[in-house]
Amino acid sequence: MTDYKEEQSNEIEALESIYPDELNILQREPFYKFEIPVKVEYTNEAEEDDTASVTIQFEYTATYPDEVPVITVSDSEGLEDEILEEITAAITEQAEENVGMVMAFTIVSAVQEKMQELLEKLVKDRQDAKEERIRKAEEAEQKRFEGTVVTIETFLAWKTGFDAEIAEKKRLKKLKEN
């Protein structure tokens, strides 16, 4: 028979040594309830250092780790809703994969990796979009200076119009002289 309380206490002890300043135990009885903030530093679109963070709260159940604990994500900073949804999905996936084993460290690590990956992708996508807008603006500007491509057909059409314009000007000049 599994001693759930002992496994839970052992995991808390391990988490306290891994996250001595971050781990915040909210309650010990009847089951542990604690939170661990996850912070990721990255370079944003303006090529400045930036940070994003979430707090993951765990609440053990009577039979944890043989069942998934209650996990909530709160206090997010610098993260868009889509990223939070993907983080929540990653937590759910990790929790389901690790049923039967202590999982808080695994989940926190997975969230940190997922946040880093998603933020880097977001920055890259925004940078790519910005570069695409610049490229299109440069192409439009270049087209303004290119003018019309001259072919035999376009030249003959222009020449016919030009000759007609010159002939009209000569005719008007003769009318004024007379």
Strand order of the largest sheet: 1-2-3-4
Total beta-strand segments = 4
Q: Number of helical runs?
A: 4
Radius of gyration: 34 Å
| C-alpha end-to-end distance | 122 Å
Poorly predicted ranges: none
Derived from helix and strand composition plus strand pairing, the structural class reads: alpha+beta
Strand content: 15-25%
Question: What coarse outline follows from CA principal-axis ratios?
Answer: rod-shaped
Element string (H = helix, E = strand)? HEEEEHHH
The amount of helix comes to 55-70%
Task: Provide mean pLDDT, rounded.
Answer: 87
Major β-sheet annotation: 4 strands, antiparallel
Describe this structure in words.
The protein has 178 residues and is of the alpha+beta class. α2 runs antiparallel to α3.
Draw up the topology in text:
Blueprint lengths: L3 H15 L5 E4 L5 E11 L5 E11 L10 E8 L3 H17 L6 H43 L5 H26 L1
Antiparallel strand pairs: 1-2, 2-3, 3-4
Helix pairs in contact: 2-3
